[in-house]
Amino acid sequence: MKKTLLATALAAATLAAAPAFAEPAGYLGFGASQTNVKVMGVKDDGNTITVDGAVAMPINQSLFVQVDANIQDVDGDTVGGANVHLGTRFSNGLVAGFVGAANANDNPAYSAGVEGQFYPMDNTTLAATLGYTKINDLDTNLWLGNVEGRYFVQDNFRLNANVGYLKADTPIGNGDGWDAGLGAEYQIANTPLSFFGGYNYVKSDDADLTANVWSLGFRMNFSGSLKDRDRNGASLSGTSSVATGLLF
Questions:
Q1: Which helix (H) or strand (E) holds 19?
Q2: What is the distance between the alpha carbons of residues 151 and 47, in angstroms, rounded to a whole number?
Q3: Is 40 left (phi over 0), alpha (psi -120 to 50) or beta?
Q4: What's the pLDDT at 6?
Q5: Can you give the residue ranges of every domain in the chain?
Q6: Above 90 in pLDDT, residue 227?
Q7: pLDDT reported for residue 194
Q8: Which of 8, 105, 110, 106 is nearest to 55 (CA)?
Q9: Is the pLDDT of residue 105 over 80?
Q10: Which of residues 62 and 201 earns the better pLDDT score?
Q11: Which residue from 12, 26, 82, 162 has the highest number of Cβ atoms inside 10 Å of its Cβ?
Q12: Alpha helices in the chain (DSSP H)
């Protein structure tokens, strides 16, 4: 099941639709990650290359839609999928629902959930996601949750931290796992180019698994500053943030 829920579909196809809507905001990115994992005493390493993108577009004064997508090479295997989010913004936050589909190793997965953001201060964002994923061919059900804090040192310099949880019901048994991560992103002044990096620690006692995940990459943004993207652009991740950290 490694990384099967990470994928979302081709970013280029998603972004191509953006000009038909007013004031689109989002990004196109490229990233790489390395995973050092230990399962039942056996160590292994993995590498992932990701091309992803997201675009958010207003429907009216309160409603918006976000579509995000990616394609990944996971140790030579290609995975992909997409998410659609529909939500409403208010003065100090947003709420949204999402549906998604992914495919890896000919195992399609379908997900749905709710998510929200709250801005207690001008430079702080608190975000939460609760989702469910079904992998029919593997007869597997996943429940995922994630909470994240983002702090903007400057409008174009963001620090973030998250904690995620996953519970899995499979034909060979049930289990759970959690991850904790730190990250940062910096956008070069007067350019659309930003650079990001992050670290996640993963643990599952049921699977006797621990892992360290290191990631870095860059994005081309078309939504102003990083804080603009957070408040008015494509800032929702669905279940992808939890799945990424927990190696599913």
A1: none
A2: 29
A3: left
A4: 35
A5: 11-245
A6: yes
A7: 98
A8: 8
A9: no
A10: 201
A11: 26
A12: 11-15, 226-232, 240-245
- The closest alpha carbon to 194, from 19, 6, 29, 12, belongs to 29
Nearest-5° Cα angle at 49, 43 to 54: 130
Which residue, 87, 82, 68, 83, is CA-closest to 15?
68
Distances (CA, A) of 228 to 122, 222, 225: 11, 10, 5
pTM, entire model: 0.86
Amino acid at 19: P
Tokens of residue 164, six digits: 């995620």
The amino acid at 145: G
Structure token pair of residue 180: 């904790």
| CB-based burial label for 187 (10 Å; 0-12, 13-18, 19+) | buried
Distance CA 226, CA 156 (A): 5
Amino acid symbol at 57: M
DSSP per-residue letters across 30-84: EEEEEEEEEETTEEEEEEEEEEEEEEEEESSSSEEEEEEEEEEEETTEEEEEEEE
Q: Count CB-CB contacts under 10 A for residue 235.
A: 25
Q: Are 61 and 89 in contact (CB under 8 A)?
A: no
Backbone angles phi, psi at 149, to 5 degrees: -115, 135
CB 184 within 8 A of CB 196: yes
For the structural domain made of 11-245, what CATH number should be given? Answer: 2.40.128.130
Q: Are 128 and 146 in contact (CB under 8 A)?
A: yes
End-to-end CA distance of the chain: 6
